[in-house]
Amino acid sequence: MKKWTVCQISKQTGYWKIDFDDTKVKIDYSEYLNIVSSKGEMDKRRVNELTKIIHRGSFLSNVEYDWLDTFKSDLSNEIIDAYLHYAATIKIADDPEFLINLANYVFYFDPVNEEAMIIKCKALVHLGKHSLAKTKFETFNKEYKAIYGEEFKHSFQEILE
User: Fold this and answer.
1) Considering the domain boundaries, does residue 42 fall inside one?
2) What confidence category does residue 3 fall into, taking pLDDT thresholds of 50, 70 and 90?
3) Is residue 25 within 8 Å of 65, Cβ to Cβ?
4) Cα separation of 39 and 47, whole Å?
5) What is the DSSP letter of 7?
6) pLDDT in tens, 94-146
7) What backbone torsions phi and psi does residue 18 show, to the nearest 5 degrees?
8) For the chain, does the N or the C end have fewer beta carbons within 10 angstroms?
9) Contact assessment for residue 51 and residue 35, using Cβ atoms and an 8 Å cutoff
10) Global pTM?
11) DSSP state, 93?
12) Which domain, by its residues, includes 103?
C-alpha cells in the first residue's frame, strides 16, 4: 500500500473514511467543528472565522436527502447558538455595528429569531437609527405572524427595555 501524502479514502472499518493532512487540506466542516466545539472560547476572531465559512453558503446546500435534514438542522442550531452565545458576552455600547452583523448572520439561518431581532433593534437604537430599528421590528412581526399565525408577544418598547 502506498503511503498517502495529502488525502486518502478508505473503507477499512466498513464505513467510508477520509484521512487527510490538515496542514495541506482545508475542510470547512473540520474548521466549523473546531470553532463551535469551543463556545467558551468564542471571541471576535473566532466569530469572524465562522462567518467566513458560512458566507460561502450553507453546508451541503445542493444535496437533498431526508436523512441529512437533521444533520443540517443541527448545524444551523449550533451556528445560531455560537453567535448568540458570543453576543451575550458583549455590551451593545461596546460594538453595536458588529452586533448588527451578528444578528444578520443569525437571520441567515432563522429569519424569526427573537434574540437576534432584539439585539439588532437595540444596537440600531444605540446608533440613533430609531426608524430602522422600528422597521426591522415591524418586518420581524410580519414574518413571525406569517410563520406562526399569531402576533409577536412583545411590543417595540418592551424589547428595548
Assistant:
1) yes
2) low
3) no
4) 10
5) E
6) 999 999 999 999 998 899 999 999 999 999 999 999 999 999 999 999 999 99
7) -115, 120
8) N
9) no
10) 0.81
11) G
12) 27-160
